[in-house]
Amino acid sequence: MSLLAINWAEAGIKAGQFILSFSIIVVLHELGHFLPARWFKCRVEKFYLFFNPWFSLFKKKIGETEYGLGWVPFGGYVKIAGMIDESMDKEQLKKPAQPWEFRSKPAWQRLIIMLGGVTVNLILGFTIYAVMLWHWGESYVPTNKLAYGISTDSLAQSIGLRDGDQIKSVDGEYIDRFSKIPLKVVLGSAKTMEVERDGQPVTINIPDDFAAKLIHYKAINFIDMRVPFLAIDSVVDTTVAGKIGLRHGDRILSVNNKPVPYYHEFRKSIQGSKNKTADLVVLRGADTMNLKAPIGANGQIGLYPVSVKEKFEVKEIKYGFFEAIPAGFKKSIETLEGYWLQLKLIFSGKVNTNESLGSVISIGKMFAPEWDWQQFWSLTAFFSLVLALMNILPIPGLDGGHALFTLVEMISGRKPSEKFLEYAQMGGMVLLLGLMAYALGLDIFRVIRDLF
Question: Which Pfam families match (predicted)?
């Protein structure tokens, strides 16, 4: 594979969504520090979106604050006078404390300033989820209404699951939302899964190392809804499907002489033909055609199947404005719980850290290849809540580290020395920057590996 094989238009759309999403999250996070700082009469010297080592893309001073746009899209910051932060402004700290400096304020005011960003991110995530539920509602196919059962990958099959199985329960509990079953297995350390196969009950025992394998192979969706592959809805002209003449209404009967009545079987057959030519048998009207499809290294052909939504019993939930508020709060709590379980899984050593860490590259890939506002806002809410959770961790250099030292001061009545806070900040920043560099390095390695 080469750089020419990358879909740059798709990559650009994903990058655009990522930059807009994180700009919203970061600006509001920093505003959460900025506003209480100003309320408590602290001088805020800088307010930046993205970091600006050596130079800024844009800057303008209004009053006592310089507002600017940096060129390193890894976050943002506010520089509050008299605060030991990532700016490491030691010269200012050598001077006597001034009334308008952060260090001169009472501990309770400093605590509010430091927790302001986390608070705003929590509110933002909850608000987005609530508005989304109010505007779009929710729809899903209940687990007991999967007309064609489940589709399975090789990992699912390795523990005894089979295509067409009907899932009845996980650890004895019926889970109505099918999408929550993989999370239950990965994050909830599920031990058994009860399925119905050919009218008979079957118990599937889940090995202890199964979650680690799913994360290692990035196969979190090891099971999915099995849906019939009825026909092609649309074709991307510039892809393999368009170039070999496939079009709306065509029905692909087989790939390499293997029937593909279900869409996951078609995808699996195409994926198995990477860098090869796949033989397709296509039904168009009353005519049968044999086409040869040269499949690239990405294992994709460039078509979309017709919707089979009418073949499933879809449960739709609509929320009024006041109903969406508690529903959004519940969804926020579930999101935080799910991410916390992921962190516990990583720190427990049950999964390989190299497989679970990712940088802005991994995050950007999560956005849709076409601009999708519903997915955009869903990911923005998710990342806002994740940022809040990560920032509140009691690590020097993060908001949680600053808050921890302030709480110790409030309880003990003794303020840590500025020299101690300075060293703690330096240690935390080295740790965080090292982790960011490591994650970025892993992502760059993955990109190069996929290219070649």
Answer: PDZ_6, Peptidase_M50
For 117, other C-beta atoms within 10 Å of its C-beta total: 25
CATH number of 143-225: 2.30.42
Q: What is the pTM of this model?
A: 0.74
What letter represents residue 388's amino acid?
Answer: A
Which of 142-167 are b and which e, b meaning 16 or more Cβ less than 10 Å from the residue's Cβ?
ebeebebbbbbbebbeebbbbbbbbb
Grouping H, G, I as helix, E, B as strand and the rest as coil, residue 295 is coil
Please name every residue paired with 166 in a beta bridge, in sequence order, or none if there are none.
196
Strand ordering across the sheet containing 258-259: 258-259, 251-255, 277-284, 287-294
CATH topology of 143-225 equal to that of 232-301?
Answer: yes
* Average pLDDT value for the chain: 84
Domain ranges of the chain: 3-133+380-451, 143-225, 232-301
Following CA atoms 49, 50, 51, 56 in sequence, which dihedral angle do they give, to the nearest 10 degrees?
-70
pLDDT score recorded for residue 318: 92
Paired sense of beta strands 65-69 and 44-51, if any? parallel
Query: Per-residue pLDDT tens for 103-123?
Result: 889 999 999 999 999 999 999
Q: Residue 309 has what pLDDT? A: 77
- Taking residue 448's Cβ as centre, other Cβ atoms within 10 Å add up to 9
CA atoms of 28 and 104, how far apart (whole Å) = 25
CA separation for the pair 236, 435 (Å, rounded): 40
pLDDT interval class at 182 (50, 70, 90)? confident
- Chain segment 307-357, per-residue pLDDT in tens: 877 788 888 889 999 999 999 999 999 888 877 777 766 666 555 555 555
Angle CA 72–77–79, to nearest 5: 130
188's CB contacts (< 8 A; 6+ apart) are: 171, 341
Domain 232-301, CATH homologous superfamily name and number: PDZ domain (2.30.42.10)
Q: How far apart are CA 147 and CA 332, in angstroms?
A: 31
Single-letter code of the amino acid located at 220 = I
